[in-house]
Known about the structure:
Layout: E1 11-14, H1 20-31, E2 35-40, H2 43-54, E3 60-64, H3 70-84, E4 89-92, H4 108-135, E5 139-144, H5 157-177, E6 182-189, H6 195-200, H7 203-210, H8 221-232, E7 243-246
Parallel strand pairs: 1-2, 1-4, 2-3, 4-5, 5-6, 6-7
Helix pairs in contact: 1-8, 3-4, 4-5
Amino acid sequence: MDPLLDFTGKVAVITGAAQGFGMLLAQELAQRGAKLVISDINEAGVNKVANDIAASGAEVFALQCDVANNVDCKAMVDLAIEKFGRVDIGVNNAGVAHDFHALHEIDEALMDRQFAINVKGVQFGMSHQIKQMLTQQGGAILNVSSMAGLGGAAKVAAYSMAKHAVIGLTKTGAVEYGRHNIRINAICPFFTLTKMVTDMADESMQSKMSLGAPMKRLAEPKEVVAVMLMMLSPANTYMTGQCIAIDGGVSAQ
């Protein structure tokens, strides 16, 4: 296997793994030799993903996790330590979007939900992953932000605020823990055809959204996951503090 894509023996924890990026990344890492602990608030969904991965011969454990709950986030890392003795990779992927609203219509309850899941969930995950990685002289963490975290995002102000915060956490973590060989990066996808987007926007809306990208289409989930693999690669040892746009050329305009 190409060393760039060889995750043999690496232990990865992934939140939001019942579908979308989290599910596809878990499948790809398992195929490349990783051992997995995956979680989602959707217990039945994440158990099914784990069973499918296990059927291929990979080592995987699943648990229900509400990332807005610090105890749940700790339990996920604790399970990885109990079963595998370490955590080499942490992927803080779980997140939620919200319906389109003008900024002046965003209420406190909506902001609270966005920050509880999209910001606190990332911070809780990073905190417990880093504590373990400090004991083993290194690791790689990947957070899922958004193009909405790199610039303004009309009609999704609360989501944009939260995803900007994820970038702040990512960069700060990279500065604090680089000397400990802990790499912390983030991806910033443009609209991607995950369930989150298809639930929010019908085909007509998706077509309009695609006009914002020079490539004139939305991303396929597998295209984003390919970049996630590169960023997490054990051979990618000097990249940290980066928030990479996967955007079909949007940021080049």
